[in-house]
Amino acid sequence: QYVKRARWMLLRNPANVPSDQAPKLAELLEANQALMTVYVMKASLKELWQPTNPWHWRAAWRNWQAMAMSSAIEPLIRFARKLALYWKGILARMRWPMHTGQLEGINNKIKVMKRMAYGYRDSEFFFLKIKAAFPGNP
């Protein structure tokens, strides 16, 4: 019951926990070892999302995954297994940091060009127009 009331406090970043709630959080984490483990693992996973060298990320990911698997906490193990299915996509994001907003903007511009290109007989010309619109991208 106490954990349910402390849900939002547990979901906050450690730096954003108000000073009046910090003792309650410390008491809750001391009382429940599994909760403490998951809380620390959440903080270390959050550090992984900071874009660094992709190969350092891969080593840090393997380390985090090994810690999660050895924790003997079933929900954490399930989460680590599900996240492991997406490691290639996450690694690609680290190597080429493009936000979805940029991608949507590029797709929208291509759609507009496609509407304007209605009637072009040559698809090669259309692709040349797309490449000319985005000179820095291969």
From TrEMBL:
The lineage of its organism: Bacteria, Pseudomonadati, Pseudomonadota, Betaproteobacteria, Burkholderiales. InterPro entries: Transpos_ISL3, Transposase_DDE. It comes from Pseudoduganella rivuli. Residues 2-130 form the Transposase IS204/IS1001/IS1096/IS1165 DDE domain. Signal peptide: none annotated. This is ISL3 family transposase. It comes from the Bacteria. Pfam families: DDE_Tnp_ISL3.
